[in-house]
TrEMBL record:
It comes from the Eukaryota. This is Family with sequence similarity 240 member A. The gene is Fam240a. It comes from Nannospalax galili.
Length: 77
């Protein structure tokens, strides 16, 4: 009867080790994918374009809400 429990422990230990290795590999793959995706997005021009458009819109709104600022800019230039 004790031999059955010993076998089950060995079997469980091997299975647990295999499951652990499997999930470690899966996590490694996901980490690699996430890092490559972050790198790709970092190189993308989309973020830069969005910032430029945001600044343009903010400037237009500011000038629309405060027309005196436009006159000051034309007199300074």
């Amino acid at each position: 009867m004790n031999n059955q429990y010993a076998r089950r422990e060995v079997f469980c230990r091997n299975t647990c080790h295999e499951l652990k290795r499997f999930w470690e590999r899966e996590i490694g793959k996901q980490t690699c994918y996430r890092e490559s995706e972050e790198h790709r997005l970092g190189k993308s021009a989309l973020r830069k374009l969005r910032e430029e458009w945001k600044q343009r819109l903010e400037t237009k709104l500011r000038l629309r809400n405060n027309p005196d600022e436009m006159e000051k800019r034309t007199h300074v230039s």
